């Protein structure tokens, strides 16, 4: 065998360093030369404001990985290629990542993908298992790098304070709720409230927040959310009047359609907020939310136009990412909105 | 003077609440399929309920009970769309096909052709068992 | 000006009565179906209506504790809708 070609998708994890050396070691076992393709798949494209930053991080990661490779390779014949994927498209879920890797593998004649067991592109949670399934489906052979987990001490410390933040936030939220229902001046309610909030935060803190809290960002988000609520109510009232006019007309001129909108908000709470806001505005109803793909049922054309103009999406981005990132093109301009037939549900 | 203003504010809120709930009831009866009904059933109704609850909060004034009402209002606004989404999703997963603008005309639904979208491709079998919302 | 002979309580009671009428109208959908989800949706809306009626009665009859019941009812209503729609998807599966 002349040489092996392996593809190594990188992301900033605890085990990325070990994955690189595993790729070199295993690749050199049965061949004398090795061609390593290092790739970083970007979850957002560069149109989105935070895209530039991510691109910068990706390049840094690639540079670091090149140095590691040089260390590991020693005298062996190892060549390195690196690339950033997903630059011109928007990667949603495991499927898209698998497709992107497969396309790259085809182009460069790569025969094996070495995956970091902690592989975690962008902001979504770990996608290893679904990714492996999709790679199987795409007919691409892969190998999970053998690594020893943990170690990276600052990470562990970081998780400690973060866990404290979760307990802290949930404790005060549930204590506040308890006191709203009870009497904040009565000592009995205060004592039982502390007990109940303690139990709730101890048992449910890890379930409640599926994303890392940020000491500075999270309170700011709460404040921005307070600005968002009146706007949302105004939108709801407007849409309600529009739909009432349509329904009360004897001819009832409705035109139901199923549309698909690819949104650009993070999964988890932002996506929940957006999907719920879309549902709350009459005329649009979120039927499914898979990754960032929303299947939306629209009742009247004007509601559909509003949805495609993406004002709610911008508002949700404003709440979670700040004013800067609210300025993105509408789903229509991005080509992320389309009408699909009912059978595609 | 303030009493009168409050009185009329309450009346307006209650009437608006009743109006939207009425629209919701009409929608639940008239609209052709589950997805369309979910629009009014869960959202117009949410606004109706919200307005009525706001009226109650206003009438109760500054006391513990109106805190409850505000809480209730908040809660209704969060849970109703979530429930509607859950129901619509379960409908989609059990394979209920939505009546779309093209198909609505051939199963005798009230006039819907107006703003028919351009590319809303195939919509075949009118014989699917569930699109007869108008019949019952 | 507040019209003579009309109190806020009466307005709330009248509104509650009208809400009951609307609830009965919506009940048609719960009976007629035709699909499980239609009934579920109708019951969910009826639940929301019940919450509103309870709140209106609380203000109309000056019985603030009705609001406690309304709060619990709203919670249960939401849980019911989510639980049943989950149940219809994986029929027989554990919720």
Automatic annotation (TrEMBL), chain A:
**GO cellular component terms attached to this protein's record:** plasma membrane
Is RNA-binding one of the keywords UniProt gives this record?
no
Q: How does it sit in the membrane?
A: Multi-pass membrane protein
Coiled coil regions in record: none
State the compartments where it is located. Answer: Cell membrane
Q: Kindly list the GO molecular function terms attached to this UniProt entry.
A: monoatomic cation transmembrane transporter activity
| Domain of life of the native organism | Archaea
Record keywords, A-Z: Cell membrane, Membrane, Transmembrane, Transmembrane helix
Segments passing through the bilayer: 164-181, 187-213, 225-248
Signal peptide start-end: none
UniProt keyword Transmembrane helix present: yes
| NCBIfam families in the record | PRK12652.1 (NF009295)
Output this protein's name. Answer: Monovalent cation/H+ antiporter subunit E
The species is: Natrarchaeobius chitinivorans
Task: Print the organism lineage.
Answer: Archaea, Methanobacteriati, Methanobacteriota, Stenosarchaea group, Halobacteria
UniProtKB/TrEMBL annotation, chain B:
Q: Name one Pfam family in it.
A: PhaG_MnhG_YufB
The residues the entry assigns to the signal sequence are: none
**TM helices/strands, residue ranges:** 7-29, 49-78
Protein name (Swiss-Prot/TrEMBL):
Na+/H+ antiporter subunit G
Q: Does the keyword Metal-binding apply?
A: no
For whether the record's keyword set contains Ubl conjugation, the answer is no
Biased composition of type Acidic residues is found at 126-136
Species lineage: Archaea, Methanobacteriati, Methanobacteriota, Stenosarchaea group, Halobacteria
Q: Which GO terms describe its molecular function?
A: sodium:proton antiporter activity
- Region entry Disordered, spans: 98-136
Keywords attached to this entry: Membrane, Transmembrane, Transmembrane helix
Automatic annotation (TrEMBL), chain C:
> Could you tell me the keywords of this UniProt record?
Cell membrane, Membrane, Transmembrane, Transmembrane helix, Transport
User: Which InterPro entries does the record cross-reference, listed alphabetically?
Assistant: MrpF/PhaF-like (IPR007208)
User: How does it sit in the bilayer?
Assistant: Multi-pass membrane protein
The subcellular localization recorded is: Cell membrane
- Any GO CC annotation of this UniProt entry: plasma membrane
Q: Give the transmembrane ranges.
A: 12-28, 40-59, 65-89
Q: What name does this protein carry?
A: Cation:proton antiporter
